[in-house]
Every structure is written in C-alpha cells, then in structure tokens.
From TrEMBL:
It comes from Rubrobacter tropicus. This is Tyrosine-type recombinase/integrase. One of its GO terms (molecular function) is DNA binding. Residues 1-142 form the Tyr recombinase domain. Keywords: DNA recombination. InterPro entries: DNA_brk_join_enz, Integrase-like_cat_sf, Integrase_catalytic, Tyrosine_recombinase_XerCD. It comes from the Bacteria. PROSITE patterns: TYR_RECOMBINASE. GO terms for biological process: DNA integration; DNA recombination. Pfam families: Phage_integrase (PF00589).
Length: 151
C-alpha cells in the first residue's frame, strides 16, 4: 500500500511576498457588481452562522468564515461553471494568463498589464505572455506599413 501526504501548504496568509504584490487594481463594473452581491450573501451567512462564524477578513471564505480548500473551490465551483459555459477545464492560475493575454491582445500597454499582475518588470510580462499571441507580428507589420504610408 502506498500513501502520500501533502507537505506544502495549500494556501498562505500574511504579508505578500514582494512589494509589487500589494497593489490597487481597477475592476470592471461587472466585477464590482459581482463582489457587491457576494458581500451581501456573505453578510447573510455571517448573520445566519452567528457565533460559529470565524471572521478573518477573507473576501472568499466558507460559510463559517474559514479559508476555502482550493481543491474544493476548483471541483465544486470552477469545474461546474466551466462545464455549464461549455469551456474546457482550466486551473485558477490559467484565468490570470487569460486576463493578461486578453489585455495584451487588445493593445493595453504592457507596463499596465505588468503592474496589474504584480510583476517586478514589464520584461517578465512580455517574456511570459507575448508568445501566446502569434498575430502580434502581423499586427506590427501592418502598423508599420500604415505609419510609413502616411509619410
């Protein structure tokens, strides 16, 4: 019989690992509304649980206010939502990559994307994400052609 035990923590609380980890990020209107709705439901859960609720200042918590096990979050929430939307399974970290790729593909300044991701430098952002957009070379060539044709 073979068994294994996880030796690394599933999550961490405390101070962020770098100075760039603590940052202000402007959210979309839809994200703000979703968070407001989530907060309203969370306040209802707090009231319902009474003294059993463990307030820890978490945005996303169990009904009792404790840290959500990432495996439960992935299997009970993310996977069913992706399936319902007809999307392939992804990890939560893949959502970060999707966000960065979408922003870069919409010509958002790479420095802004880098700041949103908390990268120490824009070169990290470009090294990690620029290969994901093969049409960038074509767009660059067309942009240069347009710029030169107006001279």
């Amino acid at each position: 019989m073979c068994s294994s035990r996880r030796t690394t923590p599933l999550y961490a609380t405390g101070e962020p690992k770098t100075k760039n980890s603590r940052r202000v990020i402007r959210l979309t209107g839809a994200a703000v509304e979703a968070l407001r709705g989530h907060l309203a439901r969370q306040l209802e859960e707090m009231e319902r649980m009474g003294s059993l609720y463990r307030p820890g200042g978490l945005v996303f918590a169990t009904e009792a206010g404790t840290i959500i096990n990432p495996s439960n979050l992935r299997n009970r929430s993310l996977k069913p939502l992706l399936k319902k939307a007809g999307l392939r399974p992804v990890r939560f970290h893949d959502l970060r990559h999707t966000c960065a790729t979408l922003l870069l593909s919409k010509n958002v300044n790479p420095k802004i994307v880098s700041e949103m991701l908390g990268h120490a430098s824009v070169s990290i952002t470009l090294d990690v994400y620029s290969h994901l957009m093969p049409d960038m070379q074509e767009k660059a060539a067309k942009a240069l052609e347009e710029a030169l044709s107006s001279l």
